[in-house]
Fold this sequence. Notes:
Radius of gyration: 28 Å
Shape: rod-shaped
Order of helices and strands: HHEEH
Largest sheet: 2 strands, antiparallel
Amino acid sequence: MGRSNDTFNKKEKEKKRIKKQREKKIKADERKENSDKGKSLEEMMAYVDENGNITNVRPQPVEDKKDKE
């Protein structure tokens, strides 16, 4: 019987190529899941609270102090 045409080096290169493809697919799937494309306007809005911090919750309306006096 003859020897296999696949050498150790060929097998290792193929393994590396397949591993790289898998990792690339995983990264692409993660980017798709975390994408902002297609989200509604409300989901993309950011608000600034009274302390100057950025939040995703709409602040409660505060009445002016001048109106109460």
